[in-house]
Amino acid sequence: MDFKKRTLASLIAIMPLMAQAQFSQNDVNNFAKETTLTFAVVDNFHNKAAGFLGTITLNNQSDVALPAGESDWQLYIHSVRKISTELVAGLNIEHVNGDLHRITPTKNFTGLASGKSLVLEFDAQVWVVAYSDFMPRAFFVSGDNKPAIFANTDSEDMTQFVAPFERENQLRRYNEPKDLTVLVTPQVRFERNQQTTSQVSQQDALKRIIPKPQKVEFNRGTATLDSSWQITFQGQLKNEVMVFMQDLQDDYGLTLKAQPDHIKLAKEKLISLKVNPQLADGKSESYTLEIDDDRIEIVGSDNAGVFYAMQSLLNLLPANSQGTVDIPQLEIEDSPRYTWRGMHYDNGRNYHGKDAMFKLVEQMARYKMNKLHWHFSEDEGWRLEIPGLPELTDIGGYRCFDLEERECLLTQLGTGPFKSGSGNGYLTRSEFVELLKFAKDRHIQIIPEIEGPGHARASIKAMEARYHKLADEAQRVAKNKLVNKKNAGKETQQVDISAATQYLLSDPKDTSVYMTVQNYKDNSMNVCMDSTYAFLDKVTYELQQMYREAGVQLTNLHFGGDEVGAGSWVGSPICQAMFADPNNGVAGAADLKPYFTQRVAKLLEKRGISPGAWEDGLMYDQTNPFKRDEFPNKTFTANVWDNIWEWGVADRAYRLANAGYQVILSHGTHLYFDHPYEAHPEERGYYWATRYTDTKKAFNYMPDDVYANADYTRTREPIDNLEALVGRPLPKLEKPENILGMQGQVWSETIRTEEQVLAMIFPRILSVAERAWHKAPWEGEQVDRKSQEQDWAQFSAAVGLKELTKLANAGITLHLPVPGGVINNGQLEVNTPFTYLNTEYSLDNGASWQQYTAPISVSEQQSVALRSSLDSKLKSRITHIN
């Protein structure tokens, strides 16, 4: 089926036969404004673990009635859980693509009068136990009118359009198997927080550097840092000094003068900065830091080491100190545990603005993280301007109500029908160059990801739009240049569409049928087409130019490789022709992913770039990686994410490392920060890997022993014998040198704003920084729990006392933990995971709040509201006792 016929078919599918326009634009607007649309979970136990029963309720308080029978109105909802019900109450429910569903009337529809309500009961996949599983901005449209968003759904406050979660069969995911999740209450939080029994003084919390240095010795006394100090530095450290001086001035009101070390300074109070390549036996990023009363000496094994010593110094400064600050005298010797200390940021699903990226990079540097894996292309969006391919951002950078996808992508993930909706936008080329320079100055490498061959719908549709535009232009040119004027009536013409097909990513005649995990039907690049590789090379070339302009080298590029829809390409005539050729080593569809990977790897090798992929993009099957010697690249990184223990693939980190790939630990159970902080319906995020991941769980991750992290199954059943659970021997790590490091991940399906994405990342990212830099003595197959709790107590006290405030001062919207609380013997007791974080209580249902400092007397039946508080603006979610 060619593109034009496919578009026509999609338009026909949405128009009931004999339908006539029923509503004016004013009617559409009024109906959506005055009618509430509410989602509800009726029963998660409805179909064991396979699906849930839900409802959509329309309460029509407008003066516009929906007529009985067929008409041309359509109602669109975003639902990440694919709805399987096709007909209810005379309405047809159709899955369009991805999360977008369409509801249209049939001849059996009885209408919806003004002042009446309509309840649509439906079956859908999987289960829903959180408000954020439902997406905002459902909308209504009729005829050629502009669509209108249901007003109550045009909100990031999910309670405006999602019914409360109250019953067991709403709060739990399933009952077969039994969901063993401990549902969070103030009492549960209190008991968990009480498990940390070690007391940490304010002085010790201020002295705790995050991430923890390898060796630190505190001496007696303090040094008083003020603007009378001067900086002397080795000439090559000019950029590091500039950043350091700016940080001192902006954050602490300290204005210091700096001079290169060839200029002799008077014996004033000096901060001395030097590079010694022999330091720490030449290990990169190492440093020493000595603080005396009138001298601070920093020596790094390289520029990065000096920069990280500066961060340790800054980390010692109390939050909110200005002008003069006392810091402890000490001696530090420090080196990183891993060379790869990263954060993955999915900007493809939703774009959160330029500032979010700069803030993330700045804070990563503060905690000695050095790799930002930027996932800028996805099914739902393309977020970087590429010269010569304007459609990637003109089309792929926006979602709206355009079923032909000539102006924008199909709306997804709660964006709604307009380009002004949440999640839209992109970085311009100049902004990205600016970001690269900003990151370079802070010793952070940005690894871009061009997602393929799956998860590529944005690029596919953008290139189809490009094809249509250039093919139409070619047709017009051909009509004006008829080869044979005598046959003008027959319009004999030569049409050159080579420019239109140059970067095409889809076969117009492909009849393949598949459905991905995210419910897409058309998101696989066609790996049999040369134009696919021309596209990847073009984008890579343009990326290289941006990096060069920023003064850095593009050395690593990630190409995704994950979650390709089963059945992709089997109906493509171009692929069938490849299968028929006995000389190309591609005999069937199973050979296509390795073929794609080989071509991309060779393409990148020619450009001096090391490829990277998600683990499932490098596997023939569950246990066998692609042959490593098929790829010419010295380095080939693999992000290993799927450690759902009972799925039987959690040993891939070691399988891939043993096979010669360079592994970056990215495990879903501990390092996915799109998951909720706790098991509560008001917490944002997906929970496919684990029911929750808080800062402490990420802190307790042990990268040196992957199997030691096997704590619970997805049902929250404790894992006592991992090998018995998997049912086969687990391979040992034979090549530990191939574990490069670790990184946190944030995926943004449920995250639409800067505030939301930063809150999902911070403060959990501090735990990644800690574990990637510092190996704790308590780590191992047999965890020293007492030592672990003491370490956590020091870390969490530092977070609560100073780090949260510093982050907030830097413009980071934080997630503050909800307090725990109990009433024992008439005494209200309150705690949080972070010692020294302020908490507040209210005895009048939130009308007034008081700071909690010690247990207070209340009756056992007293209604108490609790929240954490950082300042006058930043508060946690409120929880209630009684």
From TrEMBL:
Highest taxon of the lineage: Bacteria
Signal peptide: 1-21
EC number: 3.2.1.52
Keyword tags: Glycosidase, Hydrolase, Signal
Keyword check for Secreted: no
Catalytic activity annotation: Hydrolysis of terminal non-reducing N-acetyl-D-hexosamine residues in N-acetyl-beta-D-hexosaminides
Protein name per its UniProtKB record: beta-N-acetylhexosaminidase
Naturally occurring in which organism (per UniProt): Pseudoalteromonas rhizosphaerae
Higher taxonomy: Bacteria, Pseudomonadati, Pseudomonadota, Gammaproteobacteria, Alteromonadales
